[in-house]
Amino acid sequence: MLGSLMRLLSTCWCPPGRSSTGGDIDDDGQEGLLWFRDIGQCAGGDFSMAVVQANQVLEDQSQIESGPFGTFVGVYDGHGGPDAARYVCDHLFRNFREISSVSGSVTSDEIRRAFLATEEGFIALVSQLWNSRPHLATTGSCCLVGFISQGTLFVANIGDSRAVLGRKIGSTSGIAAIQLSTEHNANVEAVRQELKAQHPDDPQIVVFRHGVWRVKGIIQVSRSIGDAYMKFAQYNREPINEKFRISEPLKMPIMTANPAILCHSIQTSDSFLIFASDGLWEHLSNEKAVEIVHNHPHAGSAKKLIKAALQEAARKREMRYADLKRIDKKVRRHFHDDITVIIIFLNHDLLAKGFAQMSTLSVRSALEH
Description:
By secondary structure, the protein is of the alpha+beta class. It contains 9 helices and 16 strands.
């Protein structure tokens, strides 16, 4: 039973150089710990995709699903291990399609239901494997989703990944950076206030530790899929690692999988969308990232953003980028996080025509590299 369950977690993964459509991918590439798809086309326009590994096991996962229904983009930044992010990549889009197909349209409520259904499924897996794999209770994933259909963009987020829009400024050559996602990280004052309001009797709901604010002194993000130990008392006990155990009784969930959702009508001045895990934004501002994408060709743009972030990470440590690239995974985590970037270059002619004739596309980042 355990073997079949774990195979379920990995059946959706395509090795570098293959897509789930079954065809060879000429544009996939790999440079050490950096995997990339320089250019491709989805129902929303061109896309570029890249991920660099820093952890011993890659904890970021991502996907693009596209076809007559529109374009779905997912960036899943795991923590505590890769299990939750892998589960989300296998199930969130599937739940989204099942829920939205009933009504034939997409609303914020249906996206929210897809998130919560995925959460429910992962918590059920935690329960089923509690005796053999209790550490699953301490794994979780931030989730950033973009969905483009019929001239409308939905952005849904839990955690601290980020979506940024590049918008042309009038008839000039300038470009503006507009953040579309709401982040749920205890280092944001509004998030700390939200947690304090939800837990008025807990003076330790947020604690400043190791230079950052953390929920219960443990984790920075306040929303995720997974992290069962922060939501249900039956998982906040032995045999999970002592550092995750909360001394006082867990009377109500501390974290939630309820996403913040934005609905945006796409304008002709909207040029491109950047979806990235927080590893990118730790080193690049919204404005810098948008400027880099705007000033370079579409092909290889996601890879270019990751390299710019790595160059900045090296500069902060007073080392050369070439030397940083030689550092192997696990040790590399001391210099930067796993980083995932997906860029969608909006094709307004394609968006105006609709997606009825689009073939189905399914691309996912490598499981591990």
